[in-house]
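EI: anyone free to look at a 293-residue chain?
SC: sure, send it
EI:
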Amino acid sequence: MRILNQISQTLLLLWATSSAFAASHWTFDEATVSVLSKKSAGGGGTLKEKFAPNKPLSKPIVLGPSDTLKVLITTKEGRKAKQPHQAFLNVKDSASSLETSYAIAIKDNGKGKVELTQKDIPDQFLSTSASLSISLIIASFGSSTPYHNHAFDLILDLDPSSRIAATGEKPPVRYGKRPEIHHTFKQDPKSPPKIITLIFTAAVVATLPVLAITWLSLGANLNHLSKAFGNSPISHSLFFSSIIAMEGVFFVYYTSWNLFQTLPVIAAIGLVAFLSGSRALREVQERRLAGLR
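SC: here you go
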C-alpha cells in the first residue's frame, strides 16, 4: 500500500512538472510562409512552405519586386493557443548587423498574420546582395520563456530599373559619432553711421525753436510759471523731471542698454509722469477757471 502511494505521488509530481514546463515556454504551431505574386493568374500563391519551431527552412524564400510575403502562425503558451503580448517578424542583415521588426497581428485564439513587400523594407536592406535572416519573436508578461529563433532566409529579387539596383550598394545609415558641428551665429546689429545720427539729431533740435515760437503765438504766458510752481511745486517738478528722465532713458537705450534693462525704468518713470501730470494739469485747470491765462 505504501509503495502504491509513493508511485502515485511520483506520477502526480511528474505530471505537474511536465505541465508547468509545457506552460512556461512560448512557441508556435501551424506556421506557413507563402509568396503571393501579382503576376500569377488570379493573384494565387506561387510558393508555400511550412516551418516548425527551432526547425528553419533549408531553402531561402525569394521575394520579387511585385510579390507579397505572407506569414501565418498560431502562437501557443505551452500546449494552449494563446495571444502573446508581443509577436514580431525580425529581419536582419548579417553582413551589416542591421535589423528591423514587423509586428504580427495576433487574435485571441493565437492565430496571427503579417504581410511584407519590398516597399516595406528599408533601403539599407534592399542594397545588400546577401540573404536576409528572418526570425520570430514571441513574448508576453509572466514567467514564461520567450521564443526567439531563426525561421528562414529571405532573398530579395530587385527590379533592375529600381533606384537601389541602379545605384548599387550604399553604406547603411548608422547611429554613432558624427563630425563636430561649428555654429556660425549672426553678428550683433550695428549702429547706423554717425552722420545719419547727427542729421536726425539736428532735425530734432531744430524743432525746439519752432515749438517755442508756436507756444508764444498761441498765447503762452511764462509769467504764470512762478505761480504754477508756487501752487503745486512737487507735481510740476516731478512731471517736468519725468519728461527729461524719459529722454535720458531713450538716450541710454540707444547707446548701451538693452530692451530688458529699459522697460522697467520706463514703467517706473511713466507711473511718476502719470501721477504728477494729473496733479499738474489739475492745477492748470484751476487757474484757467479762475480767469488766469
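EI: The chain is about 40% helix and 25% strand.
SC: 👍
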